[in-house]
Amino acid sequence: MRSLEKMMYAGLGVFLMVLFLSPVRVVGDESVKLSSPPLPAKALEGLSVTDIASLEAGKIVVLKQDSGEGKNKKSLIMASLLFDQPINKVWDMLKQTDRQKEYLPHLRVAKIIQGDNNGNITEFMLKIMFFNIRYRVDHKFDNAAYRLSWHLDPNYKNDLKELYGYYQLYKVDDTHTLARYGSKVDIGLLVPGFIEDALTRKDLPTALGNVKKWIDSGGTFRKND
After folding, report:
1. pTM (2 decimals)?
2. How many Cα atoms are found within 13 Å in the side-chain-facing hemisphere of 192?
């Protein structure tokens, strides 16, 4: 029985990691100064001098904010990363939500159910060990502000209890884009807190690497599995 519980925890742990994107650390080949041209204060909010230096070196910076108390305590994971692509290119690629299966491990289905230039509803299916996890996500595109936000489609019987997040893009120069990312997930099952914390806090910097590789490659990068 203990062996089965360990297998379930391991499977659910991988599932949490996939929701926060995939596992590769990326370091850029060049140094980019975020101070020229000047960025809005919001773009660098909460980032230390060390964080900014890491971004300029091509690394992914992860922040974490907690909400609630006790058993209701949940973590909002936030991160910043620098893409080696112009902002319109990054924006166009992020909106192609059905292409997430090209770079997210264990994602077997990513199908747009309906949508237009202002957003879409995408159906996802993850296969992890003997688990098939299905859910639909309502994406909103604020094209003027370069902001992509998402939450679970309430009209679908999702295998997740809660999921929402965002990407906010800022132009650095003609060939670089700064992204602020945030996400929160609740799978509605009893998962040990140390597993969730380890996979979100510790592994997210490398997890976002596949997104950066995919966008920086212009969409040619492919996951291994």
Report:
1. 0.81
2. 11
